[in-house]
Amino acid sequence: MACWCAAALLATLPVLQAHAADARPWLDTRRSFEERAAALVAQMTLEEKAAQMQNDSPAIERLGVPAYDWWNEALHGVARAGAATVFPQAIGMAATFDVPLMDQVSRVISDEARAKHHRFLAEGQHGRYQGLTYWSPNINIFRDPRWGRGQETYGEDPYLTSRLGVSFVRGLQGDTPDGRPLDPTHRKLDATAKHFAVHSGPEADRHTFDVHPSKRDLYDTYLPAFEALVKEADVAAVMGAYNRVYGESASASRFLTEQILRGDWGYQGYVLSDCWAVVDIWKNHKIVATPEEAAALAVKNGTQLDCGDTYAAAIPVAVRKGLLPEAEVDKAATRLLAARMRLGMFDPPETVKWAQIPYSVNQSPQHDALARKVAQESIVLLKNDGVLPLPRDLRRIAVVGPTADDTMALLGNYYGTPADPVTVLRGIREALPQAEVVYARGADLVEGRDDPAATPLIEPQYLRPSPGSTERGLRGEYFRNKDLSGEPTLVRVDPQIGFRWDRGSPTDNLQARGEAGPGQVLPNDGFGIRWSGQLLPPVSGSYRIEAAANDGVRLSLDDKPLLERWENADRLRADSASVELEGGRAYDLVLEYYENERDAAVRLAWDLPGAKSPFEEALDAARGADAVVFVGGLTGDVEGEEMTVNYPGFAGGDRTDIRLPATQQTLLEALHATGKPVVVVLTTGSAIGVDWAKEHVPGIVVAWYPGQRGGTAVADVLFGDANPAGRLPVTFYQADEKLPAFEDYAMDGRTYRYFEGEPLYPFGHGLSYTTFDYSGLALDRAGTTRGEALKATVKVRNSGQRAGDEVVQLYVRALEPRAGLPLKALRGFQRVHLQPGEERELAFELVPDRDLRHYDESKQAYTVDAGGYELQVGASSADIRARARFEVQAQ
Question: Is 639 one of the annotated active-site residues of the chain?
Fold first, then answer.
């Protein structure tokens, strides 16, 4: 009887669900997402529809619509949402030239994103950086090394960018590497191709400049990656740019959006503006005079979602003034709500495959191991005169330079909070536990920068949490409020006070290490921490004690106030005081800190009495060492997105000088003058003109911004545990190269495809600890037609003494130079692992209609020229090992 009743109840469930769906048809899972979305939009007022077209879409309680913020970032890991695995910056991932590896990375990122989203929902949070619509990847072309945001891209080549971008989007959205959906019903995440299109600086002018590229450059350089992501990866969203293109705002362009994106490419997804770009339409570009005119123009030209605050207020005004038909609003809102439904937001969680991903995947050991592997593969060995790998029996090694022990040198921009980031200094120390590793910062990152990270942290041996304690560090009390009131949610001992969290609370780090339970969660913003204990100065004398924070901080010794800046700050700021202390005596210390909003950071540091200058300290360390590792270059603190601070060689986040900053160059030359072997490790998101180092230093390594395990990976390469095989995704120009004007978007003279000069290091360059031979390049035919595939095969053998990866690159050039055609163009690459003596045959396919096309401005269409071509295979764009010719026949 019980079985019959249960069966009867189950049989009635579809009927009960159908009745509920009749009342709210947008919850009826039997209908298409578009039908459900249209039914929901039909119940909304004009004001409600307009509000749903902004990134911070409010709840509509009467319709059961939850609040949702569309703004999320996942450039190289889930960003600005607290704890997440941080992979190498995008430019570093591009340097791997490894599409299968990118498949793994993007799947991991989407797993963590899904798990974090559902944890946020369980806690009743619906804010920014907590959703499922991710504004990545950035597939703009890194046309000029001065652009501060070039680090976010996959480099200067449209083909490399396309292949990596397609892989990244498929992984984020829940598709297999060949593009098949793993769930035919619900999308895992929405990826976004940005910034469409023709956008790559200058940052200071991005809200005002108008780009008029030749149609050749537009179609041959700036658009191919976007076309690939639309046609091959079915990317869910496309983000416009700030600037104008041919006089139209790129975030409200009929030509770009309606003609190309939807008309020529058949795009079915949604389009969003860059953040506050709709404001630019009237305020800065002055295309129209009012917000309502800007909103009407953007919506009519195909931009459904406003990252900003214009649409909600301006769209209703525009409709009432007759500037915008309400039917256009309905169409846009329906497209957006259908996208949310496709992600499963309006369906029972148990019916959504991706909602079952456990939170335990976030920052798992497997993800940490992958971050290390990606960092290893991204590292480029620029030069090696036999100094690398360094011997493991070194007794004393000096690690010198401003980015050696700086977490920011690992992260770049748009990053999450890693649980346990490993700097290069720490990586080297852990790799050589038997050696004495001496560290000296030596120089500031750039001249004139007030760098709070320059002062050494107070080390654990000089701190204890209570009198007589054998523990080292300070007692930390973590509060859920800014005034440090009530009971702390967590108490622990912190060995040092040197923390930096990007849009996340310390809780994320603590949970990742198993130190905080579900009931001990701190908010992302508005928390406070009190550290207390005793300070144990080693010698008597005058100490300079520094407390740095973003936001409020205050410090007392023996109950006497020493430093206080209890106010909000827009960045990490340092305050210091000189104080006389007695060696051997214990001083009661209390450090209090609060975080207001956004980024969070706090440091407790000091200079000991009689300390030498950082420069002298570095030279002393080098003179007494068996080898010197100089770690310098750039960080996201000086190159990045629209910065307000300027330094010599930098302006608004861009660079005005591609050389190594002068402070570091002076230090590097002095280290070399000691006569000790020096290896240079560059942290950077862009090309650096290291001409002097190329001439004088025996080993140069580019680490990029290598992510949370970057220091470990660098040590793996330096000491031979990993064989480097990264390749440059950008051209490294000579320091005195006269580059075209930064604001000129013509491609002539730019990138390996059009640059006719002698580069410092060419696109695709990268050395190994072994050698590879190429042989037997063969084509399956001597001639082909436009649509007929040509197959090329080549044999590659590891002719060295150790296993390693080779990145085999295939380029094509026309035998008869034609105006406007590239000198050569990458059209295939494979990263292959070979044991010593192992040989493998690799195959490439070339389809003229796809791989040899170029835009003909007279025909206003792509075309393929008949005639002779040369296929080149080699280890870089300049290191060609084999060549073969073929003909494309006229049709």
Answer: yes
Rounded to 5 degrees, what are φ and ψ at 633?
A: 125, -120
Quote the CA–CA distance of 466 and 459 in Å, as a whole number.
16
Closest CA to 636 of 684, 680, 591: 684
Query: 707: which residues sit within 8 A by CB, 6+ positions away?
Result: 76, 77, 86, 87, 88, 89, 92, 371, 374, 375, 410, 411, 418
Task: List all residues 6 or more positions away from 649 whose beta carbon is below 8 Å from its beta carbon.
Answer: 446, 655, 656, 657, 659, 661, 662
The first and second tokens of residue 119, run together, are: 């944890």
From the candidates 103, 306, 639, 737, give the one annotated as an active-site residue: 639
Residue-level pLDDT at 503: 56
Name the CA radius of gyration of the chain, rounded. 29
**Band of pLDDT at residue 450, cut at 50, 70 and 90:** low
Q: 7 pLDDT exceeds 50? A: no
Cis status, amide bond into 137, omega within 30 of 0: yes
Topology classification of domain 770-888: Immunoglobulin-like (2.60.40)
Amino acid, single-letter form, for residue 530: R
In this structure, of 481-485, 784-788, 802-806, the range with the lowest mean pLDDT score is 784-788
- Right CATH number for 40-349 from 3.30.360.10, 3.20.20.300, 3.40.50.300, 2.40.50.40? 3.20.20.300
Q: Which helix (H) or strand (E) holds 454?
A: none
Residue 744 pLDDT: 97
DSSP 461: G
Full 3-state SS string of 819-863 = CCCCCCEEEEEEEEEECCCCEEEEEEEECHHHHCCEEECCCCEEE
Q: What are φ and ψ of residue 575, in 5° steps?
A: -125, 145
Mean pLDDT of all residues in 200-216: 97
Which two structure tokens, joined as six digits, stand for 11? 């049989």
Per-domain residue ranges of the chain:
1-30, 40-349, 365-454+612-718, 460-496+526-597, 770-888
**Encoding tokens for residue 29?**
């899972």
Same topology between domain 460-496+526-597 and domain 770-888: no
Residues 6+ apart with CB under 8 A from 664: 401, 402, 443, 445, 632, 633
Instruction: Tell me the CATH number for domain 365-454+612-718.
Output: 3.40.50.1700
Of 418, 423, 462, the closest CA to residue 441 belongs to 423
pTM: 0.92
Determine contact, residues 393/431, Cβ cutoff 8 Å. Answer: no
Active-site residue, selected from the candidate residues 274, 306, 716, 851: 274
Q: Is 274 a catalytic residue?
A: yes
Q: In 296-433, where do the E strands start and end?
A: 380-384, 396-400
Q: How many CB atoms lie within 10 A of CB 656?
A: 14
Buried b (16+ CB within 10 A) or exposed e, 590-624: bbbbbbbebbbbbbbbbbbbeeeebbebbbebbee
Q: Among residues 439, 452, 438, which one has the least CA distance to residue 401?
A: 439
- pLDDT per residue as tens digits for the range 39-98: 999 999 999 999 999 999 999 999 999 999 999 999 999 999 989 999 999 999 999 999
- The Cα 650–Cα 646 span in angstroms is 6
Contact 174, 624 (CB under 8 A): no
Q: In the predicted model, is pLDDT for residue 226 greater than 50? A: yes
CATH annotation of 460-496+526-597 = 2.60.120.380
